[in-house]
């Protein structure tokens, strides 16, 4: 069984993530979506909320593909997470040249740590290259329309989260 790990913070999951998930299903029998618990990034959504959103969105994508889906939160090294879930492939999405520079370094380090795990890069579709969760959150915070970057369910969750955050700050 070919097992692939697609890691990310998914704060929130975007149409760019969905594009990579959709294409990754043709590469693996089991796709593990690793939801990174990265306290340094200060995520808007809790890990439980992100896992729930990722499960809901990704299950729609993989339905009918024959690919098994697992959503797995992790807080350890990426290569250790790959070992934990028995992944032989790490799947990474690239949007721009700047992404490649960082990812190139990461692959080198991971290969030293475990040379049995390959990294596969999928270029983001041209329609999704500009989408970044960080920018989606910023646009939404400033009252912009992010409906072109996330699904309706994620958009609703994002708006509710931002409204609650505004309400909590006002008190």
Compact overview of the structure:
This protein has helices at residues 15-24, 47-62, 78-84, 97-113, 133-141, 152-170, and strands at residues 3-8, 30-36, 68-74, 89-94, 118-123.
The secondary-structure class comes to: alpha/beta
Question: Span between N and C termini?
Answer: 53 Å
Walk across the major sheet and give the strand order. Answer: 3-2-1-4-5
CATH fold-type name: Rossmann fold
- Structurally, the number of domains stands at 1
Question: What number is the mean pLDDT?
Answer: 91
Discrete helix count? 6
- Mind telling me the C-alpha Rg? 16 Å
The arrangement of helices and strands along the chain is EHEHEHEHEHH
Give the full name of the CATH homologous superfamily: HUPs
CATH-derived architecture: 3-Layer(aba) Sandwich
CATH class: Alpha Beta
Biggest sheet, in brief?
A: 5 strands, parallel
3D structure, described in words:
The chain has 171 residues and is an alpha/beta fold. It has a single domain, classed as Rossmann fold (3-Layer(aba) Sandwich). It is 46% helix and 19% strand. The protein has helices at 15-24, 47-62, 78-84, 97-113, 133-141, 152-170, and strands at 3-8, 30-36, 68-74, 89-94, 118-123. Strands 3-2-1-4-5 form a 5-stranded parallel beta sheet, with helices on both faces. The mean pLDDT is 91.
Question: What is this structure's SSE topology?
Answer:
Blueprint lengths: L2 E6 L6 H10 L5 E7 L10 H16 L5 E7 L3 H7 L4 E6 L2 H17 L4 E6 L9 H9 L10 H19 L1
Parallel strand pairs: 1-2, 1-4, 2-3, 4-5
Core attributes:
171 residues; Rossmann fold; five-stranded parallel sheet; 19% strand; alpha/beta
